[in-house]
Design a protein that fits this description.
106 residues, mainly alpha
């Protein structure tokens, strides 16, 4: 999937490097330490956070192909929304970073 989309958006002289990059990402990231389904759910959340109109349907399809349920996909979207909400509230209200970090000290 990635390499066919890359064929259309990258200059011809970069095709080999782009293909190698996407092959390495697929082999080492999406099929790495995190199970594929979970990696695709994380990619959905990141896609939502970056508001990528291309990534959301692509990673949703790949998550489903990896066995993700509609409920898992909705949860990944909800996690992205929750992080965005809390980030906006903290940043917008200029919450003190030292105070915030103390909430999570071990």
């Amino acid at each position: 999937l990635y390499s066919s989309a890359a064929s259309d958006v990258y200059k011809r002289q970069n095709q080999a490097a782009v293909a190698a990059y996407y092959k390495a990402v697929e082999e080492n990231v999406f099929n790495g330490a995190i199970p594929l389904k979970h990696a695709q759910l994380a990619a959905i959340a990141a896609s939502v956070a970056s508001k990528c109109l291309y990534c959301i349907p692509a990673h949703t399809a790949m998550a489903k192909a990896a066995g993700a349920t509609e409920e898992e996909i909705k949860t990944a979207v909800a996690i992205a929304a929750d992080v965005a909400l809390n980030s906006s509230m903290l940043y917008g209200n200029q919450f003190d970073m030292d105070e915030f970090l103390q909430m999570f000290s071990q």
